[in-house]
Write a structure and sequence with these properties.
The complex is a heterodimer.
Chain A lengths: L6 E12 L4 E13 L4 E5 L6 H9 L6 E6 L2 E2 L3 H4 L2 E4 L11 H11 L7 H11 L15 H13 L5 E5 L7 H16 L3 E5 L3 H7 L2 E6 L2 E7 H5 L14 H13 L14 H8 L7
Parallel strand pairs in A: 3-8, 3-9, 6-7, 7-8
Antiparallel strand pairs in A: 1-2, 1-4, 4-5, 9-10
Chain B lengths: L1 H19 L2 H20 L8 H34 L2 H6 L5 H44 L9 H28 L3 H16 L1 H9 L6 H12 L9 H6 L8 H25 L4
Helix pairs in contact in B: 1-5, 2-3, 2-5, 3-5, 3-6, 3-7, 5-6, 5-11, 6-7, 6-11, 8-9
The chains are: A alpha/beta, B mainly alpha.
């Protein structure tokens, strides 16, 4: 039985003291959030809106000025809570002298994977992120996309219930970003809760069940993706082979029922969809 | 407890691998080795010291000087590399305590310094043993008593120097845990080591009768809080004049060295506990 939210944040506030006079900069302002288990949750907002600070507070890397946070029912910032959490920081940097496999093995040991399970866990994580072939290469030789994927592998090697990804697609080409999107989907299928911070709104829309939008440290919107995007006062009909006569007849019929035709346009596909249709892969996809 | 130890050892292992690749380590190691090897060439300018003591002083000096430089700079560098490169973000988001992270950094850096001490002390031992054998042959021809050289004493001295460097690493880690920049950690760490090296002066001054005042309080604090790093310099007594070390001295030096390491690491963990990464 799944009980309680994966992450519960109540009235979280974080002030940074800046300069010699100790002026306060409020990075997070009275944030309350509940992230359900087993869902992909998008935490969105412009740069500097407090997303990364919120994630760092959740993980105990930064202390909150006030507020309460629980991870999987445990007080956050405790090793017990972090043992069930995986984290990929923004623009991750790893020891370049280690191979991908050595890095993931190192993280497996730090994450408490039993010694007799480490190799199997490393193989599984590398396979999930499609890095098994490149795992013997030094991390210093990896492309940006490969770095993000090996970062994902170190985050999930201990099979955490909660995975927090801070900008996992930053600097990655669309094909690499799509690959990361597929990994997130795979984690959802395995029942993991994924918290995703990203500026790739198209991908967030595709992979997330719920989203929250922050601005200037405050939560401005939170809800299921379908709910928040739906404009319930508008409707879209997609019609094939529309002739001028049919259009005129439709307008007349709609007017007879008090409805009004707003616009007639051709449906568009996104540039990302077009790009992915035309480009089949890259070296590190 | 076993899991915590395992995590500390993994941090130590990666720290060791990172440190051993640094050019700074190789540079100071080569410099120290050159200093030890050159002692046999420079001894022709003997300034009245016995030959063995001259060679030994060169080796002890190299170990002390380059070991201290390595201890201060490498400790601060390895600590700040984790913060500046943001690898600490990944590591500290795992079920790893801040104290475990620091102990791991300490053990990794101390292990590198152990390699440094063993290599230089080994080189010094070869130089001293070779020259001691030559001088013993000459002394036998002249029916004189041979010069004394105790290889086991040199091993003990190397162990003491390693312990001294352990105290240095723990001190610098304490400074780094509270410092904002690498440069600050290096400068203050170096000053702390220098103060520890001169701590015996404050002990002497404290023994002299004087009026109570702020200066005396400062002296008392300096004497009781800073380790006396000079107490590890028993090279002459251990290597060239065996059996001159008083009973109880070595156990006391070892115990106090270990106690300072534990105390500094505890303080460093406390300072690092709430640091924002």
């Amino acid at each position: 039985m799944k009980a309680g939210p994966s992450i519960s944040v109540r009235n979280l506030t974080k002030d940074f003291r800046i300069g010699l006079k100790g002026l306060k900069l409020r990075a997070v302002d009275d944030l309350s959030l509940s992230i359900p288990r087993g869902q992909v949750f998008g935490l969105l907002g412009p740069n500097g809106c407090g997303k990364s600070t919120t994630l760092k507070i959740i993980l105990g890397l930064v202390t909150a000025t006030s507020g309460e946070i629980a991870i999987l029912g445990l007080p956050s910032a405790t090793p017990a809570a972090r043992a069930r959490t995986g984290f990929l920081p923004e623009a991750p940097y790893f020891h370049k002298f280690l191979s991908g496999r050595e890095l993931v093995r190192y993280c497996a040991h730090l994450s408490g994977v039993p010694s007799n399970r480490v190799e199997a866990a490393v193989d599984e994580a590398l396979a999930l992120v499609a890095m098994a072939e490149a795992s013997e290469r030094l991390v210093g030789t990896y492309s940006k996309g490969m770095l993000q994927r090996i970062g994902l592998a170190q985050a999930i090697v201990h099979d955490p219930e909660l995975v927090i990804l801070d900008e996992p697609t930053a600097g990655v080409d669309p094909v690499g970003a799509a690959a990361i999107g597929r990994i997130i989907e795979a984690m959802r299928v395995r029942g993991k809760t994924v918290v995703l911070c990203s500026h790739l709104l198209g991908q967030v829309e595709q992979v997330c069940d719920r989203v929250a939008i922050m601005d200037k440290g405050r939560l401005v919107l939170e809800g299921a993706v379908e709910e928040v995007l739906e404009r319930r006062d508008r409707h879209v009909l997609t019609v094939a082979d529309l002739t001028p006569a049919a259009l005129a007849a439709a307008e007349t019929a709609l007017a007879a029922h008090g409805a009004r035709l707003g616009s007639v346009t051709h449906p568009r596909r996104s540039l990302e969809e077009l790009f992915r249709e035309l480009v089949t892969g890259s070296r590190d996809a | 407890m076993k899991a915590a130890l395992s995590r500390c050892l993994w941090i130590a292992r990666i720290t060791f691998l990172e440190a051993i690749r640094q050019r700074f380590f190789a540079f100071l190691f080569v410099l120290g080795a050159v200093l030890v090897l050159s002692s046999s060439a420079i001894r022709v300018f003997d300034f009245g010291h016995s030959e063995l003591k001259f060679i030994a002083d060169f080796g002890f000096g190299g170990l002390f000087l380059f070991g201290s430089m390595l201890g201060v700079v490498m400790t601060a560098q390895l600590f700040f590399a984790e913060l500046d490169n943001r690898t600490a973000l990944t590591l500290l988001a795992k079920p790893l305590g801040r104290g475990e992270f620091l102990v791991g950094k300490f053990l990794g850096t101390w292990a590198v310094l152990g390699v440094f001490v063993i290599a230089l002390a080994g080189l010094l031992g070869v130089m001293l043993g070779w020259r001691a054998a030559e001088l013993a042959a000459i002394a036998a021809e002249r029916r004189l008593s041979p010069p004394e050289f105790d290889a086991a004493g040199l091993g003990l001295f190397a162990l003491l120097q390693w312990l001294r460097l352990g105290v240095v690493v723990a001190m610098v880690l304490t400074v780094a845990a509270a410092a904002r920049t690498f440069l600050f950690a290096v400068v203050v760490g170096a000053l702390a080591v220098l103060a520890g090296q001169l701590q015996w002066l404050s002990q002497d001054l404290l023994l002299k009768p004087a009026e109570a005042g702020l200066g005396r309080v400062a002296l008392w604090l300096l004497t009781h809080l800073l380790p006396n790093l000079q107490q590890f310099n028993l090279g002459d007594a251990l290597v060239l004049a065996p059996h001159q070390v008083q009973d109880g001295t070595l156990p006391w030096v070892f115990a106090s060295g270990l106690a300072y390491i534990v105390a500094f690491l505890a303080l460093a963990s406390f300072l690092f506990r709430r640091r924002e990464i």
